[in-house]
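User: Hey, quick favor. My workstation is busy. Could you predict this chain's structure for me?
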Amino acid sequence: HDGATVSAASVRVRQLGGVLSEEEMRSTLVVAGWEGRDLEEALSVSFKESRWSPYAIGDSGQAVGLFQTHRQPWARFCGVTEDDLFDAVTNARCARLIFEYERARGYPRWANWSAKP
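Assistant: No problem, here it is.
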């Protein structure tokens, strides 16, 4: 899994629309810092949330991207703009930060997401 795969996929989806393949999504998660069990679960949750579409929009426009990350408060929490959440790697990194934030506070796994692994 490497950044070149992720970069090529990002360009393709941005220009042509569509969704990431499983291989592209796995590479995106690796680049974003997911690993092991967490990566496998993240693959499942992101598929259920967006069907691996970086441009998915839900919750009346409040949830965006691969993990259907809520624009606020999470964009600010992750140190990115709301529009940055449409970038596959940025969204996956932000989701990882949220996941780790919740884990550190003893929340159940995937507490922030309606979709579960």
